[in-house]
Amino acid sequence: MIVAFSVSPAGTAESDGGVSEAVAAAVRVVRESGLPHRTGSMFTEIEGEWDEVMDVVKRATDAAGENAARVGLVIKADIRPGYTGQLDAKIDRVESHLRDD
To answer: In what order do the strands lie in the sheet with 70-78?
Structure first.
């Protein structure tokens, strides 16, 4: 499965409303998980089996919320049993169609 998720801590000590330090803590958890992943400006994608992916999402959410009063979490999942390596393969398929133009 591939999960795209975004954490948004609220009530942090940063006066300008920025949450980059808290988000970095979440991304660190994802990177240390060893699972295939990609981080963009608004979402982090991670690929693996249900239990291992959801465990990483939980730990990343906990890390982001360590110094926050609350955390918003958005999750989108592509659950496709029997398929692996789709984090890049899905993009490669789209790119191949674009090259055909």
So the answer is: 37-39, 44-47, 2-10, 70-78
Query: For residue 85, how many C-alpha atoms fall within 13 Å in the half-sphere facing its CB?
Result: 3
How are beta strands 70-78 and 44-47 bridged, if at all? unpaired
Give the gyration radius of the chain's Cα atoms: 15
pLDDT greater than 80 at residue 17? no
Q: Supply the pTM of this predicted model.
A: 0.88
CATH of domain 2-100: 3.30.70.930
Structure tokens at 29: 């958890």
Could you state, in order of their start, the residue ranges of all structural domains in the chain?
Answer: 2-100
